[in-house]
Design a protein that fits this description.
alpha+beta, 4-stranded antiparallel β-sheet, single chain, 638 residues, 19 strands, Thrombin, subunit H, 6-stranded antiparallel β-barrel
């Protein structure tokens, strides 16, 4: 496995810039220059002392020091072995920092605040710099610039580089941004090089201080990244994306990479062109390419496993909240099974029309506006429509928090690889501590801006100027733009105000997101009803401390037109009620008894039930003829 042997192979020889000195894999790495003589990174003891002195209790100061030192580290010339040992020391603090940064951009809704956007950018930059450290080692060794060729060191560097490219994918998915240009070319090239040289099955230990983390191979990581990208993460909530990423190592074991297409069904198969900057695609969507250039991921065994898990999975994660362990729920499994089974066909043709909409976000705001007699309590957001390109949405996981005592790092060792590869014991004797598309950010940009003492305005009551929308029979594509617009999540309800009647609202659900810049989102809105009513529901004939059972706010979709084959639906903020129970529904001044028949959809944002009207004994006696009424004219004549 030498550089000379691979110069003419596909992914190694990357043409385009006309220079013969370009590294074989074409990985993007920063330029290095000679370090100053007193640089602490040149002395392992000084470096170790610097890590031990980090103020771990102060996340901001620790992040500043780690980021600035890591950026400097990747831009100075160092021996490959010293660089590998040193970058291993950066891994635990970067994970610790990233875990603490996520509270500023996870589960807070999008678009993010200025601080949230910069924090998310910092998390991406940290993962990018770690990936760059290992890519530098890979490129030097493959191009022959390294003084000694150590197969074991090369395999570790390839594995780590692929791992942190995966962490970058996760960070981009968490903010619903598209895959950066060049990232998938690097992922594909690393796997192609490893598989061509038959090192893609060599196990490498994680060495992150966790006893449960088993070894993984380059192919294992590649399958995990293919699974993640093909799951359409821009359709997942952030919590679901993190949960999916955390289960990839387990689920990837049920998948197989096929060297060539066996001509079978395309169901449950995704392929990727290893010579291109492209993410995995469903097998039925890509033009066939030569077998050596393609890798096909077969997920049919995984789908069988997930369908079995679906029958045993809960509807929500409340059962797992007591032991502080997130669980895979039915709504998430349903989304994943659909994504990994069939190609993402569009059911309706988009019509590029220009018109205006007024929308309001959230069940509470929709309910309040429907119940208001005069001015609506929640200002609607006006969205002007314009056409969008007919392209597929970019494919846009959770790391456990590292617990350290302040100012100390855990010691872990770099695991030995297969003994057949090398006999040196250097790594066993050495104790080590355990985006693309985004311009490299300066450290001062990650500070929190001052608001000059001004209190932030309430975005729920403010008037917002945002743009966008094209229309299809199934819904709209809305561009959510502005500095103070309401923050929304996947699966959230959106009320669409009727142009002719401000008291009438249609109802939509956000199905996917794409972020183009920190203050602009594209939302895929599925319209589930053109009209809804506000109501209250409580359990029938059940009394509480004050005489009546507690009532729940709800939205009612009462479109029972037989021609539309629709069923009346009840939408609530949570799954608080069970199917099969009788309820008292109050819409306006009218009460009726209903029975929940089916849970149609459930998410952390709302629950939707089908219901049917139930005739009580009182109503049966009031309406229609009672037994014997047909003889009323006879009784007086007997």
């Amino acid at each position: 496995m030498t550089a000379k042997d691979d110069t003419n192979r596909g992914p190694q020889a990357i043409p385009g810039d006309g220079t013969s000195a370009r590294p074989l894999l074409g990985l993007q790495i920063p330029k290095q220059s000679a370090p100053k003589a007193d640089n602490l990174l040149l002395d392992p003891k000084e470096t170790e002392a610097w890590f031990e002195s980090l103020p771990m209790a102060n996340i901001g100061e620790t992040a500043r020091q780690i980021y600035s030192t890591l950026v400097e580290f990747n831009r100075i010339e160092l021996p490959d072995l010293l660089r590998t040992k040193t970058v291993e020391k950066f891994r635990p603090p970067v994970e610790y920092i990233t875990s603490n940064l996520q509270k500023h951009y996870i589960d807070v809704g999008l678009p993010l605040s200025t601080k949230g956007s910069k924090t998310a950018a910092l998390a991406r930059e940290l993962q990018k710099e770690l990936a760059s450290s290992y890519k530098i080692v890979v490129e030097r060794m493959i191009s022959g610039a390294s003084t000694g060729f150590d197969r074991r060191l090369l395999i570790i560097a390839l594995h780590r580089a692929l791992y942190y490219l995966g962490q970058m994918l996760l960070q981009h998915a968490l903010v619903y941004s598209g895959w950066p240009e060049g990232m998938w070319r690097e992922i594909n090239s690393i796997y192609a090089y490893a598989s061509q040289n038959n090192i893609h099955h060599v196990p490498v230990k994680a060495d992150d201080g966790r006893h449960n983390n088993a070894s993984s191979t380059i192919e294992d990581l590649f399958k995990e990244l293919m699974l993640f990208a093909s799951s359409t993460p821009h359709r997942l909530r952030q919590s679901h994306a993190r949960l999916l990423f955390a289960h990839l190592d387990e689920w990837a074991r049920y998948t197989t990479i096929l060297a060539e297409d066996d001509g079978g069904t395309s169901l449950g198969r995704f392929n990727v062109d290893l010579w291109a900057d492209s993410s995995p695609m469903h097998n039925s969507l890509r033009t066939p390419v030569p077998g050596k250039r393609i890798a096909i991921l077969d997920v049919r065994e995984l789908l069988k496993r997930l369908r079995t898990d679906f029958e045993q999975a809960p509807w929500d994660s409340r059962t797992g909240s007591q032991d502080n362990k997130a669980v895979i729920t039915r709504p998430l499994l349903r989304l994943l099974i659909m994504a990994w089974s069939r190609p993402p066909d569009r059911r309706f043709v988009r019509t590029k029309l220009n018109f205006d909409l007024r929308v309001v976000a959230g069940l509470h705001a929709i309910y309040g506006n429907l119940q208001s007699d005069g001015d609506v309590p929640y200002a609607t957001t006006r969205t002007s429509v314009f056409s969008l390109d007919e392209t597929d949405s970019p494919e846009a996981g959770a790391k456990r928090k590292v617990r350290w005592t302040s100012g100390s790092l855990e010691n872990v060792s770099l695991a030995p690889l297969d003994s057949d590869l090398t006999t040196d014991s250097l790594f066993n004797e050495t104790q080590l501590t355990a985006g693309y598309g985004v311009p490299a950010s300066r450290l001062e940009e990650f500070g929190e801006p001052s608001n000059d003492g001004q209190a932030p305005s309430d975005p729920e009551h403010a008037t917002h100027a945002v743009k966008t929308v094209n229309e299809s029979a199934g819904g709209y594509c809305i561009r959510w733009r502005g500095d103070g617009i309401p923050r929304v999540k996947i699966g959230e309800l959106i009320g669409v105000e009727s142009p002719s009647d401000r008291s009438t609202y249609g109802l939509g659900v956000i199905r996917w997101m794409k972020q183009f810049d920190p203050v602009s989102l594209d939302l895929g809105l599925e319209v589930i009803s053109t009209r809804c009513d506000a109501g209250d529901v409580r359990e029938h004939r059940k009394t509480g401390p004050r005489g009546k059972a507690p009532s729940f706010k709800c939205l009612v979709i009462n479109d029972t037109d037989s021609a539309s084959n629709a069923t009346a639906s009840l939408i609530m903020s949570t799954m608080s009620l069970q199917t099969g129970v009788d309820l008292t529904l109050n819409v306006g001044a009218q009460e009726q008894t209903i029975r929940l028949t089916k849970l149609v959809e459930f998410s952390s944002a709302f629950a939707r039930y089908h219901f049917e009207t139930v005739k009580t004994d009182d109503k049966q006696s009031e309406g229609g003829e009672r037994p014997g009424d047909e003889f009323n004219d006879l009784w007086g004549n007997l």
